[in-house]
Specification:
The complex is a heterodimer. By secondary structure, chain A is an alpha/beta fold. In chain A, the strands form 3 sheets. In chain A, strands 2-8-7-6-5-3-4 form a 7-stranded mixed beta sheet, with helices on both faces. Chain A has a 3-stranded antiparallel beta sheet with strand order 9-12-11. In chain A, strands 1-10 form a two-stranded parallel sheet. In chain A, helix 3 packs across helix 10. The longest helix of chain A has 25 residues. Chain B has 5 helices and 6 strands; from the N terminus they run αααβαββαβββ. Chain B folds into 2 domains: 42 residues; 87 residues, Alpha-Beta Plaits. The longest helix of chain B has 13 residues. Classes of the chains: A alpha/beta, B alpha+beta. At the A-B interface, helix 2 and helix 11 of A face helix 2 of B.
Amino acid sequence: MRNPLSDKVTEIRPSGIRRFFDIVQEMDDAISLGVGEPDFDTPWHIRDEGIYSLEKGRTYYTSNSGLKELREEICAYMRRTQGLTYDPMTESFVTVGGSEAIDLALRAMVNPGDEVLIPQPSYVSYEPCAVLADAKPVIIELKGENDFRLKPEEILEKCTDRTKILILPYPNNPTGAVMDREDLEAVARVVIDKDLYVISDEIYSELTYSGRHVSIAALPGMRDRTIVINGFSKAYAMTGWRLGYAVGPQLIMQQMIKIHQFAIMCAPTTSQYAGVEALRNGDEDVAMMREEYDRRRKYLLHAFREMGLPCFEPFGAFYAFPDIRQFGMSSDEFVTRLLKEEKLAVVPGTAFGDCGEGYIRISYAYSLDDLKRALERLQRFIARL
Amino acid sequence: MSENKELRKKLLPLIEKNSRIGIDELAVMLSEQEIDVANELKALEEEGIICGYHTMIDWSKTSIEEVSALIEVRVTPQRGLGFDSIAERIYKYPEVQSVYLMSGGFDLMVIIEGKTLQQVAGFVSDKLSTMDSILSTATCFILKKYKDHGTILTKKYEDTREMVSP
């Protein structure tokens, strides 16, 4: 029999998290600081709208781009948070989570061999999606001493005449790093100078703790070079609804929508109705969750200081990325021993790129009581090393 | 008494949900000095804004009997005293948990807890309805508490997320 598989796909490394997940699953009494999703339930009024839409029999496809009301709310959100104007009909559309939008943006924009700059540590799907789109992923290794912010010289170092796209993953998973306006301005200058496009993954935009998030698209000259990707998962605790969106220049949106139309048809209708409610009436819920995350964040950083675990202050998402290099073992070894000896699961930094070596990702999307229990174990483990 | 408005706004909702968070932890989470948090808590207690640190118990899950009832009470207000003096006569009974002055079809809402139905019924017939200015009472026994003080009692929070995810 012939090999049924595509070489391109088989050559992609399986996710480092997956392997670790299987080990954790086999332990009965393990506790975890390893999740990448909120611990809150979706606010009830949002769930209720989803249920109501089902009761009314809204069980059909929507238009490929998504409900008009939802696209209008998305564009209104971009206007009120970033001062950016997008046409709901031609410059925005609704996707199955932010992940789909990442995939579509890459597929719509690269030709074989085009280079895509991917700062790491970052979310696990940029690199494989670039490969699947026949791009050449070029990794920028972010540095701990820069608090994992992207510096313009790091872009220049990796830029060639084939470089077309920069992926900008801020607020960042796994590091919790954010990019301030000044950081973004420096990046934007290089992007414009080198005639690059930016795929800005802003899925954690609502979860920042040092002032509001700034989108690079809002900087002069950047709107028409930027695809902004966002979604409902993190802000409204809606991971399971699989609802995201992309906004950007019509030229690119049109082609992304074309792929979306053939591959997906449309995002889940129930989720879209819930999404309208989230954007219309969800601000207070987001503020409540943000405050709660912020308190846990402060608690966590304080606990790290007490136990002698160095960590730069993360101002976004719900992760901290402590530095474990002083213990003289690899991230993988640290995490495996922590799991075996203290039954506490955290994710090795290397799951988010090789340059995550020497770090671990700790999520604070847990109740304060759960955090306390887990941090006791971490403290006990470190004290023994 | 110096009043730190900002701190109060952050502090009160937090300890309203969980009064067991230590002063050191509160200080860390609110980015304040421990001494400031301690002083503010003391001030709030002295001003009667913080009235106690109780424990929420779902008695129905224990083997200890407990019956509670809401009693709608209609009264004749007294000249010069309004409802205050009759409310005071009612709230002095230790079995009375809450007394509210209400708008609407009746005047006072009395929440009472007793060990048995008879005990509650006895209180209403012997003590409450015999008071001078009370015109009528309507007793509604609580059959099941689904949610109390913002806390859902009928099911426990369960973390159903995958243990590890990207």
